[in-house]
Fold:
Amino acid sequence: MSRAHLDRLLADAAALERRHFRIAGALAAAATIAAVLLLGLSGWFITGAALAGLGGVLAVQTFNYLLPSAAIRLLAIVRTTARYGERLYGHRAALMTLATLRTRLFDRILTVGDVRAVSAGDAVTRLVQDIGALEDSLIRKPALPAALAGGAIGIVLAWLASPWASLALLVLLVALSLWAHLATPRLLAIAAADMAAALARLKASMVDHASASPEILAYGLTPAIEQALEVEKTALDQARRRFARGEAIIDAGLVLGGGLAMGAVLAISQAALPFTVLAVLSAAGAIESLSGYVRGVSRGALVTAALARLEAMTGRHPVPVDATISIVQTIVFDRNGASVRLEAGERLGIAGRSGSGKTTLLEMLAGVRPAPADCGIRLDDRNLATLPPEAMRAAFALSPQDAQLLSGTVRDNLRVARPGLTDEQLWAALDVGCLATEVRAMPEGLDQWVGDGGARLSGGQRKRLSLARAILAGRPWLLLDEPSEGLDMVTEARLCRRLATWLHETGTGLMVVSHRPAFLALAKHRLDLEGNNSALAEAALS
Structure:
């Protein structure tokens, strides 16, 4: 996926929350206008009251303090209320946008040719950390209308001191905006990329080490792991310090600009002292309203680094899937002089020694692993290597040998197969997988929590839950890799019978890898993979 496609994906996700972003922007502008007016009016009121006090009793009696004090209270209420609403709508819109983006990017990861090219730890850190980095830019979307509104009201109020004061403030506002845009790539870009990469490495290492924690403890590798993590932590701290220094320099420019604005308005002012104070403080408020926008520009370096990492993970642009490919009427295995031809709905048993390529064969068919040009497999007279992974995934449902489960409920793990599944369909699939009785016996049934990666289930239960999920996918071909591993002989025989009945009723084709004769007996055709030669042979089974 190119950067343009990634930007479009982000824009499409944000478009769903456009109304809330607009409300947040309007509320941010209202809060900023109220803040600048409050600051300027307060300065005018305090100065005017002080001068009235110096003018004697008559001046104090003629000074109207009721209207300014009431206006100050009103502006304080408007500022607080608008700021709260801006935070409420802005954060909601940002979080919903990120939720949509994570879902769509997760789907994009599955359309990359070799999903195994991205480690679990790296995928987790990119989907969590890098997309999280985009949150700051989304939350700060209202900062631009706020800065424009604050600058505009500040320039108007500075006009009360002198037209030249307004012009000076306008020049400073433009200069500070340019300063932020020019300084960010020079001061923050490299540090942001280093910080994102270091944090990603650290988190990926933590995820990978956590998954291997039993082995680390068993072999006493904890000190070595801690030392390696300390090196990565040091690199992250160094990058963070460089980024913080760059941000401090940019913020210092903003502070300096605020002082220059106040000094310039004060020096240029031709108005009375109360209006001069009003204009000076309004100029300070206008510069302050620019801080959110400048902060967003600075944080844009982190967003750019995050988008670059997401772009690298999501790979190429998705290829449209030809609807005729997903049907796959014929499959031909042809290599080393041997040939096996399968028609729609037929079954193939695959056997061979460990390391002969049985699992690799199923993963190529499922679109999990790219196929070489000389793979010797043709789908409807098309070389498997020339077909996009999306095409294979539309035709084949895989239940792998090492089933990966979500850290959720039984229902969550089943419904990931495809949208719109009912509880009746879930129970029917569990019944075919000989797991329905065990799930019904669980305290929460379909809502039973299976633990991290299915840790609360036995190996046989995880295998059968994965098989039920593959059945629910509704693909024309079912791929099973050692489906009876971890099962006793009675359960294996029952699973074979129910699966055979389901295959016959639905007309689904089957390819099964197994070392056990019970499952190989389901197939009419036989494919023997011999060592590295992967010789193909066909045997009719009665």
About this structure: The CA atoms of residues 119 and 484 lie 27 Å apart. Residues 317-324, 532-542 have pLDDT under 50 and may be disordered.
